[in-house]
Design a protein that fits this description.
mainly alpha, Transmembrane protein, transmembrane helix, membrane, transmembrane
Length: 60
């Protein structure tokens, strides 16, 4: 049973979050910000985890 009002959009939102996380990693790696890049990688990791969860949460 779907958990949201629009169950078909949940995987799309999740994949968008995963791709956004990859974009954040790409920008952070390009900037070579040193220790400040750890913040960017951490934010990207959190977004990727939530995106992965949203993508596959309705599978039984």
């Amino acid at each position: 049973m779907a958990r949201t009002e629009y169950p078909a959009k949940t995987p799309i939102i999740g994949m968008f979050m995963v791709f956004a996380a990859m974009g954040i990693v790409a920008v952070t790696a390009y900037q070579h910000a040193g220790w400040l890049s750890i913040i960017g990688y951490g934010i990207a990791a959190v977004i990727a985890i939530f995106g992965f969860t949203f993508t596959f949460r309705d599978l039984s």
